[in-house]
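Notes to self after the Tuesday call (sharing in case useful).
The group wants a holo model before anyone commits to mutagenesis around the pocket. I volunteered. Ligand is fe (ii) ion. Logging inputs and output together so the record is complete.
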Amino acid sequence: MKECTFVFLKNWFHQYVQGFYSTDEQLQFHVRLKEEHTLRVLENATRIGVWLECAPEQLELIKIAALFHDIGRFKQYQTYRTFNDALSINHAQLGVEIIQQSNILKTSGLSGTQQEIVERAVLYHNRRKLPSEEIEKYCVPAKIIRDADKIDIFAMLVTKDDKNKIPQATEFENALLYSEKVIEDILQGRLVEYPEIKTENDLLLFRLSWLYDLYFPYSFSVVLEQGYLEKLIAMLPDTQEVHSVYQCLREYTNHHVMGNHIMVRDV
Ligand SMILES: [Fe+2]
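Result:
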């Protein structure tokens, strides 16, 4: 892969996104939100790849996959005015279609296998689980993108910067309560199922249960360092059940972070 390939693709990405810029404030807000999110996921993914000591060529593919992971979001929002896949379209699948229709990966000089690695990482990034039969060369970039994406979603939930904060979901009940089944799942060490989400608090608990789906110790170290678990728990009702959820997830995080120091390497 040529050194300039990533630069070429990053320029293409920015041009593509700028095609969605609008005087419609709502559309513009959501397009910018995902553009900024993508750049932070790119940074997170690069850091994880460096931490894993990935070979230079693999690191380039990881960066490209991060850049393209949410490429379907812009068209999704422009068409459906929502980021909720259940109410619109699978944005990962749409992303792969956009990549293939534009032929941009091939144009940039990526081989067939390299294109496949990027496309699968995009396709798998929002799945509940990676396909169990998938082979290693496709799994590592996909796992890195999944972790990098979740870390930034945690950041976007807790930030005080309104321009980068995930807007409140309007499709769930604005109840102060949460569903018992959601609490039970987390206490049993299970990822919450999307159809179980009934209230906004359930949605937050669902996202907290993503901790069970993080792959790399580096990612857990970021969660600890940034205090995401504590900050997200503080957004929930102050009940004994929520406290138990905190204890459970904190123990899980402690167990999965390597050593007692934060492993952030410079990239
Ligand atoms: Fe996504």
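Two things stood out.
The pocket of fe (ii) ion is lined by residues 69-70, 91, 125-126 (CB under 6 Å).
Residues 72 and 91 are 5 Å apart (CA to CA).
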